Amino acid sequence: MASRVLSMRIDGDLLDRLQAHAAKRGMSVQDYIVRTLIRDDFDERLKASVDETEQFYTAGYVSPSAGIR
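RE: above sequence
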């Protein structure tokens, strides 16, 4: 996967907090932000998947216990 550059303007207080959080984990601010974004993206995809599954079962298509004896 090719990497690209993203430039951001961040408030000084926010940058200080990000640096503190990153330092606690032994990471650079850049790595901390990237990992946070990846985690948030995963959380959103997981929630969407759970919501779709719940809709599937509540729509009456299949009982959650179907096929279980």
